[in-house]
Every structure is written in structure tokens, then in C-alpha cells.
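Example record used in the benchmark description.
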Amino acid sequence: MSSMGPQFGNGRLDAIEVKGPMTLTDTSMPCLALQWSPVPVAGETQNVQRTIGKVTIAPTGAVGSKLKITLTVERRNFSGDDLADLTYAISGAAAKVAWSSTDFTASRTASAATIKDVIDLINQLPGFKCWALHVPHSKSVNSDDFIALAETSVKSNVGVDGRSEVLYRDVSEDAVAYMRVSLPEERDANAFDLMQIRGKATGVTNGTLRLLRDNYAEYGDGSVEGEVYVEAVLAAAQTEYVDATKENAQTIRGPVLLEVTSDDLTVANYKVGIVQRTLGA
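Model output (C-alpha cells):
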């Protein structure tokens, strides 16, 4: 039997899976995935039913006109009467400040300096689950460089569309594009062969393209977090930054982050091709 290289879209386990496109707009490449489901909460009576989790994003809602993320929980009693909403507000700041109390039967406040801080704070809230999408964990939230979101219900972990994608960057204030890549989801750490990185950009002065490791579990531990796998000078025209074969492809473990940046970047359109390395790796 003749040997076959990776194929596109034919159901083979060694088929190339294309991630992307990575673009540079205010309505693409969300920073966070968010889920909510009702759970029992210590200290809350059985007569209290938590019914809906919601999120609101105000780019200038915190002190100093910095980012504010508010998680709201709607409640009712067994008689169907509405109870007071609970609000958990995270303000962008120069340093992380823990929740004002870990008794989450009442509204609370906290502060975050980075995306990692935001994730950690949200994951302490009963019923909420959060992880990074297309942004580094080190990204500062001590700014107003984000897009507003009116109060919106958070999806539950049900079906293929079981997460809300929230917190979009104001790319006019931040000339850099990001895309998180891994298998099977962006947060997972399975191994894969890096086959392709290709794309084009507008505005490439002092521009670079990098693929680097950005794993929540390794953040700040001084190990391989931040390790750079690909680094190249950014070109405007459609360019193959990686074009490997199965025999010479670099094997890496996710999650990794594709980063495209320059002094004057206004348009970016990039895709990454990967092949699953081993089942369960």
C-alpha cells in the first residue's frame, strides 16, 4: 500500500485540521470562554433557586475608567417570586485584589491586573466557569481597550454551542492579533504536528509573527510557558511561514498562541494547519 501524507477533510486521524482564520477586528477573536449552571451554594437556603447567570462588560466602568466585568445571578424562591440579584464585579487594576468575601450568597467585588487574574476570580464563583481564548494569559486588563457588552445571558455547558465567547479587544488601541491553537479545544494540551502557518497582513512596519506556548497550567511557574516555536519577520503578501511535511513537522504540545504584531497593523488574516499527533497524548 502506498504511503499517504496528511489529507484535508477526509475523516483520517492524520488529516490536517485548519485553525482560523485569525483576523484583526473588534468582533472576532474573543478573549474569554464563559459558562454558567445553577449549583447549590453553601449558606444559601433551599428556598433560593439560582435561575440565570449573566455577564456585562463596561470598558470604562471601573475606577480610573478601566475595564469592569460584572457577573449577575438572578434568583427566585419556590413560590416563583423574584429575589434580589447578586452581582460579582471585577475591576481592571494595577494589581489583583481577591473577592471582598468568599461568602458568595451576597454581591461581591474584586480587582484583576491580567486575563489570568480574571479567569481565576471568575472560577471561584459558584456556577461559573471561565478559560482563555484568543489572548495571552498575561494580557493586561488595567485599561479601557475592550468592547462593551450589554447584559447577556451566559450559556450552559450543553451541546456543541455550550459556551459564551466574550470580552473582545478594541484592536484600534492594540495593533496585535492573537489566535489560540490546540486540540481538541483551545484550552487543551494534546500534542500535534505543526504543518502550516500562512496568511497576509496590511501594515507590517517592524512586524513579527510568533507562535509561542501559553498554557494556563504553566503560567508563571518558570517552565516552558512563553517558549517560542516559530518567529519570523512579518510580510504583507500571502506568505507560508511554515510549510512542513509529515516527515519534518515540528511536534509540539498545546495550547499555543499565534501572535502577529507590527507598528501599524490594520489587517491580519492567518490560518494554522495541525495534525493530531497521538490519541490521548
